[in-house]
Amino acid sequence: MKQSTATRIRVMLADDHPIVMGGFAMSLAGPDIDVVAQARSPEEALALYAAERPDVLVLDIRFGTQLTGLDVARRLLADEPQARIVFLTQFDQDSLVKECYRIGGRAFITKDCDPEELAAAVRRAYQGELYFMPAIAERLASLSVKGDESPQALLDERALAIFALMAEGLTNAEIAQRLDVSSKTISNASQAIKDRLGVHRPADITRLAVRHGLIQP
């Protein structure tokens, strides 16, 4: 990854809330950090990252429609495993944080963090160090002890894809057509997924999928 030749850290922000990004840009203004770009969509984030080559990307995990922040992270880290990304997350996104860490994420903060903590996360990410806000680290440690009950942990890849389509409100027949299999196959799989996750009402299925970042709210 191309690094800045100066001592200042070149930072790019990616979030679909202008007020949030504006606040972060002001918070990061300092003697060693420059905000060089701001993206309001995942598509813009990919384009600006390629154009600006920032030292650190501050990225909202859950934003976008066709693409999401997580898709941006997957693409960047697949091409550049050493890319420095500070992930913006929320307290109901345990499984997403675990996924970001799995694909190579290094720093995790919440949008309501103190300005000093955001700057510290950027500096640590720039140095290639792992950084979790204490509250996030505590949640993940608790999750590790209790066991991960997320759909991502309990379902295989195909079942997870079916579950996401169920959460979007598709019928068994529609899912079968989408995946080019029989309705009976989907009916059996759907029931097995419901039993495995312990959810049966459509509204509960949708809420679970949204909570774990499988579909957009």
TrEMBL record:
SMART domains per UniProt: HTH_LUXR (SM00421), REC (SM00448)
Signal peptide: none
Domain Response regulatory: 10-126
UniProt keyword annotation of Flavoprotein present: no
Modified residues (4-aspartylphosphate): 60
Coiled-coil regions listed: none
Domain HTH luxR-type stretches: 148-213
Domain of life, per lineage: Bacteria
Keywords: DNA-binding, Phosphoprotein
PANTHER family: TWO-COMPONENT RESPONSE REGULATOR
Protein name listed in UniProt: Response regulator transcription factor
The organism of origin for this protein: Pseudoduganella chitinolytica
